[in-house]
């Protein structure tokens, strides 16, 4: 039997896309139509996470993640994933106390970037994520360069994500703004871009981006499927 996947959710749209990917693509890993591993999810209120992030309370973020982890362990899950890049800032506090192992979204993305031969990767995401070391650390450990948008772009991108995308609101003019940021990263020498907010794949993809995209949401889900079905 495949392993039971636990999802520690944060924002609804990103968690939903991750869940859908697990269910839709599971069949290709399991060799049977409609098949996918067992999946359980727990999520605290997004507002609780935002309050912690606004206060720079990374320990508070970790405690929310650990609360979900313990509930998912009690539900019988075998390992955990979190389809939210921003709260991975707390992972160094989570792992020593976690009842279960995790896949790290940025490490999954870095491995994909290496496999595709990229060297300099632009990082898109919330202002909390882009200001953090989540992707610079993961990419640097893989021998890659991380390039961040400027401060004004980070603020604009954070507004688009938190005021629109996490609510499932898609504005064509906002997508154009994000595309312009990718154009800027390309001009700075980037050869790929991380969609480092799990809602960004709702509006950005290889078809409308000036750079190849690294879809963190789907890459994490696919890594989880590989792990869950590896022992079959």
List the helices and strands and how they pair.
Elements: E1 5-9, H1 12-30, E2 39-43, H2 46-54, H3 58-74, E3 79-81, H4 91-94, H5 105-115, E4 120-124, H6 127-131, H7 134-141, E5 145-147, H8 151-163, H9 172-187, E6 192-195, E7 213-215, H10 216-229
Parallel strand pairs: 1-2, 1-3, 4-5, 4-6, 6-7
Structural commentary:
- This protein is an alpha/beta fold and 232 residues long.
- The chain has helices spanning 12-30, 46-54, 58-74, 91-94, 105-115, 127-131, 134-141, 151-163, 172-187, 216-229, and strands at residues 5-9, 39-43, 79-81, 120-124, 145-147, 192-195, 213-215.
- The chain folds into two domains: 5-104 and 219-229, 3-Layer(aba) Sandwich (Rossmann fold); 105-215, Rossmann fold.
- It is 50% helix and 12% strand.
- The strands form two sheets. Strands 5-4-6-7 form a four-stranded parallel beta sheet, sandwiched between helices. It has a three-stranded parallel beta sheet with strand order 2-1-3, with helices on both faces.
- The longest helix is centred in the first third of the chain and has 19 residues, at 12-30.
- The radius of gyration is 17 Å and the shape is globular.
- The model has no long low-confidence stretch (mean pLDDT 96).
């Amino acid at each position: 039997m495949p392993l039971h996947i636990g999802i520690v959710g944060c924002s609804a749209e990103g968690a939903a896309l991750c869940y859908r990917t697990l269910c839709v693509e599971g069949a290709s890993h399991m060799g049977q139509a409609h098949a996918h591993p067992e999946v359980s999810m727990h999520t605290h209120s997004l507002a609780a996470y935002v309050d912690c992030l606004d206060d720079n309370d990374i320990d508070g973020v970790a405690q929310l993640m650990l609360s979900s982890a313990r509930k998912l362990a009690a539900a019988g899950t075998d390992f955990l994933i979190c389809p939210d890049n921003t709260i991975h800032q707390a992972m160094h506090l989570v792992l020593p106390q976690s009842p279960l192992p995790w896949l790290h979204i940025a490490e999954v993305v870095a491995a994909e970037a290496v496999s595709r031969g990229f060297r300099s990767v632009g990082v898109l995401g919330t202002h909390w994520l882009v200001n953090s070391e989540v992707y610079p650390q993961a990419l640097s450990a893989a021998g890659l360069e991380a390039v961040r948008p400027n401060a004004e772009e980070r603020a604009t991108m954070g507004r688009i994500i938190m005021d629109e995308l996490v609510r499932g609101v898609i504005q064509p003019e906002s997508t154009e703004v994000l595309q312009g940021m990718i154009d800027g990263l390309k001009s700075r020498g980037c050869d790929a871009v991380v969609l480092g907010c799990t809602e960004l794949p709702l509006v950005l993809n290889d078809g409308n981006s000036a750079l190849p995209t690294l879809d963190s949401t789907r890459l994490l889900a696919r890594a989880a499927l590989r792990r869950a079905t590896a022992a079959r």
